[in-house]
Amino acid sequence: DKQKAEEEAEKKKCGPVYYLLLELDILRPLIECKRVEETIRKRVEDALNSDAVQKQIEARLKEERAKLEERVAQQLRDEETALLDEAHRKRDEEKRKKEELERMLVENERKVQEAQERAEEKQKEEDERRFKQLEEKQKEAAAERERKRKDKEAKKLEQAKILGVKGARPKLSFSLG
Q: Residues 11, 18: contact at Cβ < 8 Å?
């Protein structure tokens, strides 16, 4: 029915050319193709408008949304893990640098302490050497003073003998008679 009605409508539009084209089998495949396209379009439209297809589309969309959300959530978790790993790595690196710095400070402090101890030991040795020199000089000075004192005493004694002071010289008695 419908097919015939379409053919009638087409006949009216085209008039005598229609019959000519039908006889030449040129128009028939075109009409058939148009009819098939219209049937397919109508079936697709009916199928798309049906509740079952709408539910399938909604279910598929929901499923795809859930997959997308899961992928996005996984990507966020991966990025968070990467950021945390990077933060841990930086923290560990800073800790390692701090420990290295502290080790260097302790080593420098030890070296400074050793240098101070060596300087103190050297100063102590130098002080002891000076002290021994001073002691030696004092002994020499004391010996020199003692020698000078003895020399002075010896000179005094000799002068006393010469001058006859304090009975250093025997008394001679002179008598005239």
A: yes
Burial 12-33 (b: 16+ CB within 10 A, else e): eeeeeebeebbeeeebeeebee
Pick from 24, 21, 18: which is nearest to 9 by CA?
18
**C-alpha closest to that of 134 among 126, 119, 149, 147:** 126
DSSP per-residue string spanning 69-138: HHHHHHHHHHHHHHHHHHHHHHHHHHHHHHHHHHHHHHHHHHHHHHHHHHHHHHHHHHHHHHHHHHHHHH
The pTM of the whole model exceeds 0.90: no
**Has residue 99 got a pLDDT over 70?**
yes
What is the pLDDT at residue 25?
Answer: 61
**Given this model, what pLDDT does residue 166 score?**
62
CB 35 within 8 A of CB 9: no
Q: What does the pLDDT average to over 18-43?
A: 73
